[in-house]
From TrEMBL:
Gene Ontology CC: one annotated term: plasma membrane
ABC3 transporter permease C-terminal domain ranges (all copies): 286-390, 671-780
Domain of life: Bacteria
Protein known as: FtsX-like permease family protein
Organism of provenance: Chitinophaga fulva
Residues spanning the membrane: 21-43, 327-352, 372-391, 422-442, 668-691, 712-738, 750-772
A GO MF label: transmembrane transporter activity
Every MacB-like periplasmic core domain range: 20-236, 431-635
Length: 791
């Protein structure tokens, strides 16, 4: 009997090739989308799970109350590590790190400039990245040691044994290789090529170690049998005990975030986790399920629409003794066969499109063919899809009464009409919602991109500082200007596209009791900063370039002046930092978009402090070809920084990076919206073909009685158009509500216009008309003589 079911299913596929192709191809696309999204979701959830002790690893952070708002900060002070070890029971290991480290490494003739991590000696005890050579507890004990990843060691030393070899860092200090790590997996929150001992930076580079200097990240590994809540409660009040900052003493507290949240829940609001990538993981999971549902609806509709073709078969099988359960099993087996074929095609589609998908999403996803768990999940996926797609047709077809079927008195088409229409509405409601979402996301990105930045990014470039560049800065600047390819040069503590430092302002004129203020801080090295970046001073004056005098001055941006309520800011005095710095305001600069393009410009101040400046910014002269300029710049930088290759970035590219994630979301939503519409149209095409086939004689009679081609076209098309219009009416308010909530996360945002909803609805109706018109016009042009011949 089972063999008979397979033969029947196969004959049904072969005898109705067009409908089978629509079913299989539509379902394959839906399954491919769902599988691709499923792999992406699994990749995101897999972050850091490869580390043996990830469930016991936490980051220590602190939250502070500023003017009624609770701000969360990941950076902590150097003395905190020792306090945690001594005073918090249940803490097994503590490590502090700096993840912003990029250094030049030289070994014999090999020169590399790579990102690394500066970390305390217990780093590899807290983060158990696999060591190929060395012991986790020993490799970072010597302040003049370095641990390399396998690929970095290969690049520096080739096939030679790297252990005990010497690596010169920043052309300043020799470090000895004490360990080799496996290359860090791509699904690791932290990406680095080497580890440098924290003691080296503290003792050799003279990093600040006082409580007021929050520049390091602190991580703890808990004892296995210790409660997270208990440890978190014990460390909560440590800042009040040790911090010298008056605001930290009164309004700050420590807390921990577990490692499993770092990648997906990195955003905080009012001191608690408020979302992050997890929101988009959930969103795309829903999109994947919707696209799969749309494909399954095609299968249901085409199967039930063709029920009259199978009615006699059902009647005969029931008449000779088949039970309803037997028929349900038969039709589900047919569904499983189609689903298996679709699945094999979908697996091929995923394999072909995966490289492009990885490039689009900046991931390294692969299909784990060697995983038994993966195949078990896929088998369950195929079975559930087969049940979802074939469940309704199986139970519907098996319900036919044999007496009515064999007498020819049963009209199945009308019985299935209403559910079919409802399912078509569901399809297009989902598709229209995705179309609207894609347009709104694109508009929001463009809205932020078109926002005035307050600086001129055209032909503006930047290069990271290095010890050699720092020592030779004035000579480098003179040589760059003398080449003629550079119009101006400056140096600052952060690029014009970012704010890397903040400071607590203690006093200013008009400060209210209990009020506090954090100002974003940029240190500049000369008076050419505002000229080079294109920022505009709107009041007062610029720095003079006199180091002795300018270190006593500060320039505020407009947001800082507004936030401090300074009616006449020039010559006002502010006090900040520890020890307290007293500085006079000499100028006000127009607000520049140095932070998020979706948020308001934060209050900022600009200081004159060459020692803090570590980013070289320079503007190319007008009319100089970029390739010629790069060649000249390479020669000049190599002259003053001979140990490392010339590295640069255009400010335009750095600014574009701010939109990377939103652009990714928009691109993915657009791709999935197109696929959803395409799958829906496949279903409409099949239904239109079937309806035209069912009404062949009616169309012939109408044409004989004088109906025109347009009237026949309208007869066959109007039902589908009405369904799509109703779908748009349902989708528009639902999507508007969801997108309005999504937009609330951005301070600088668009308002969703009615025009977007109308244009999307018009597009959906137009696509529908084009899809069904082929079958409608084909039926209208058919010869009525042939259609009216007796069977």
């Amino acid at each position: 009997m089972l063999l008979n079911y397979f033969k029947t299913a196969w004959r049904s596929l072969i005898n109705h090739k067009a409908y089978s192709a629509l079913n299989i191809f539509g379902l394959a696309i839906g399954m491919a989308v769902a599988l691709l999204i499923g792999l992406w979701v699994h990749y995101q959830f897999s972050y850091d799970r490869f580390l043996p002790g990830y469930q016991h690893t936490n980051q220590v952070m602190y939250r502070t109350v500023y003017n009624g708002d609770i701000l969360t900060q990941r950076s902590t002070a150097y003395p905190l590590a020792e306090v945690l070890k001594k005073e918090v029971p249940g803490v097994r290991y503590v490590v502090q790190t700096d993840w912003t480290s990029s250094h030049g490494l030289v070994a014999k003739e090999k020169k590399l400039y790579l990102n690394g991590v500066t970390a305390g000696p217990d780093f590899l005890k807290v983060f158990e990245y696999p060591l190929l050579r060395g012991k986790a507890g020993d490799v970072l004990n010597d302040m003049h040691s370095i641990v390399l990843t396998a690929s970095t060691a290969k690049s520096l030393f080739g096939d030679a044994d790297p252990i005990d070899q010497i690596v010169r860092i920043d052309n300043q200090t020799d470090l000895k290789v004490t360990g080799i790590l496996e290359d860090v997996p791509t699904n690791s929150t932290f990406q680095f090529n080497y580890i440098i001992p924290l003691d080296y930076m503290v003792k050799v580079q003279h990093w600040g170690t006082q409580w007021g200097n929050n520049s390091l990240q602190t991580f703890v590994s808990l004892e296995p049998n210790v409660s997270f809540d208990q440890v978190s409660a014990n460390m909560k009040m440590l800042l009040k005990k040790y911090s010298v900052d008056e605001y930290s003493i009164a309004k700050s507290e420590l807390f921990m975030q577990p490692m499993k949240q770092w990648h997906l829940q990195a955003e905080f609001k009012n001191g608690v986790v408020a979302g992050g990538l997890l929101d988009y993981v959930k969103m795309f999971s829903i999109i994947g399920l919707l696209v799969l549902l749309i494909a399954c609806i095609n299968f249901m509709n085409l199967s039930t629409a063709r029920s009259e073709k199978r009615a006699r078969e059902v009647g005969i099988r029931k008449a000779i003794g088949s039970h309803r359960n037997d028929l349900v099993f038969q039709f589900l087996l047919e569904s499983l066969m189609i689903t298996l074929i679709s699945f094999m095609i979908s697996l091929l589609l995923v394999q072909v499109t995966l490289p492009a998908f990885n490039a689009l999403t900046n991931t390294h996803i692969r299909i784990p063919y060697d995983s038994a768990v993966f195949w078990c999940i896929l088998m369950a996926y195929v079975l559930l899809t087969a049940l979802l797609a074939g469940g309704r047709p199986a139970f519907y077809l098996s319900s036919f009464q044999p007496v009515k079927v064999l007498k020819g008195t049963m009209q199945t088409g009308k019985a299935a009409s209403l559910p079919r229409k409802a399912l078509v509405m569901v399809q297009f409601t989902c598709s229209v919602a995705l179309m609207i979402s894609t347009i709104v996301i694109y508009q929001q990105i463009q809205h932020a991109k078109d926002r005035p930045t307050g600086y001129d990014a055209q032909r503006l470039m930047m290069t990271d500082n290095s010890p050699d560049i720092n020592q030779n800065y004035e000579a480098l600047k003179n040589d760059l200007l003398q080449t003629g390819v550079v119009a101006s040069v400056t140096k600052s503590s952060s690029p014009v596209t970012g704010i890397w430092m903040t400071n607590n302002i203690r006093e200013w004129q008009g400060k209210q009791p209990g009020e506090s203020l954090e100002l974003g801080t940029t240190a500049v090295s000369d008076a050419d900063y505002f000229k080079t970046t294109g920022m505009t001073i709107v009041a007062g004056r610029n720095f003079s370039g006199n180091l002795g005098a300018d270190t006593n001055y500060v320039i505020l941006n407009e947001s800082a002046v507004k936030r401090m309520r300074l009616k006449d800011p020039i010559d006002q005095i502010i006090r900040w930092s520890d020890p307290v710095k007293v500085q006079k305001v000499i100028g006000v600069v127009k607000d520049a978009l140095m932070g998020s393009p979706y948020s308001s410009v934060p209050p900022c101040m600009f200081l004159y402090n060459p020692d803090w400046a570590n980013v070289i910014t320079y503007r190319l002269s007008p009319g100089v070809p970029t390739d010629k300029a790069i060649a000249t710049l390479t020669t000049v930088f190599n002259k003053h920084n001979p140990f490392y290759s010339y590295r640069y970035q255009f400010i335009n590219d750095a600014y574009a990076d701010k939109f990377r994630f939103e652009t990714l979301v928009g691109n993915l939503a657009g791709v999935f919206a197109v696929l959803a519409i395409f799958i829906s149209c496949l279903g409409l095409f099949g239904l239109a073909a079937y309806m035209a086939e069912q009404r062949t004689k009616e169309i012939g009679i109408r044409k004989v009685l004088g109906a025109s081609i347009s009237q026949v076209w309208l007869l066959l098309s109007k039902d589908f158009v009405v369904l799509v219009v109703l779908s748009c009416i349902v989708a528009a308010p639902l999507t508007w509500y969801v997108l309005q909530r999504w937009l609330q996360q951005y301070e600088y945002r668009i308002n969703i216009s009615v025009g977007v909803l109308l244009i999307t609805a018009l597009g959906a109706v137009t696509i529908t008309i084009i899809t069904v018109s082929f079958q409608s016009i084909r039926a209208a042009l058919a010869d009525p003589v042939k259609s009216l011949k007796a069977e």
